[in-house]
Predict the structure.
Amino acid sequence: MADPRNELADIIAPAAPAVAATVGGGALLPWALAAMAFIATVVLAAWLWHRRRPLRALNAIAVAAAQRQTSPSALAARLDAWARMRFRLARVEAANCPARLDADAWSSWAETLEQLRFAAPKPDGFEELAALCERARQWSRHA
């Protein structure tokens, strides 16, 4: 005669289907990879945007000088603040040259900036300011 425990075992505790366990778990992997790729792209874009922020500020000063939007002394003050932030200086001085820059060129640049900020306005002040911005742009690429 047959053993009732073996005959009724499938009715009391049925076996789980093997196909249902693999279908649900495998569909999350592509979504997880897509989410990780999206997060990496957003982080990379934020890092690049943050890295180019000083150059955007310098371009804004150069555009304002080209369009003669305000006085040369005000734009020179903005350029001074940019140089202090970009080169991590307490004060822009001719004698205090940042690392990796030519000391003579820096001295000339700082003196011209000081004259634009504090001396009487010159008729060619905007052109001098545009030249200072161009020199600072060159330094910003290499520093």
